[in-house]
Amino acid sequence: MRLTKDLVAAAATPLVLAILAKGESYGYAILKQVNELSGGELDWTEGMLYPLLHRLERLGHVASVWRETDGARRRRYYLITDQGRAELAEQRRQWTTVMDTLKGAWHTTTHPLLEA
């Protein structure tokens, strides 16, 4: 299955905020988690993730800090802010409304082509 670019983009912010709500993380780990959570259906690239993280940081939804790892390699860790948690709660309410609406619409649909 191929998800449309618009749908992937719309889900990106709540997905990243939800991942960071579970704890701070860094780029590669976020990409890996997105892939795992989607069962491989969402295969984001660094070119998609980092602009999103930078935008979320500009908006005050996430903060970042450089840390050295075991091998003395530096990584930039991202963490959700209180403002980001509020945004995640709002996005969750909006997505729940969309999902409930679609479920209702699809459940009452009796078109034979949609039954397959």
Automatic annotation (TrEMBL):
Domain Transcription regulator PadR N-terminal: 16-90
Statement: the UniProt record of this protein carries the keyword DNA-binding: yes
Domain of life: Bacteria
GO molecular function, one term: DNA binding
Keywords, sorted A to Z: DNA-binding
Protein name (database record): DNA-binding PadR family transcriptional regulator
Organism taxonomic ancestry: Bacteria, Bacillati, Actinomycetota, Actinomycetes, Micromonosporales
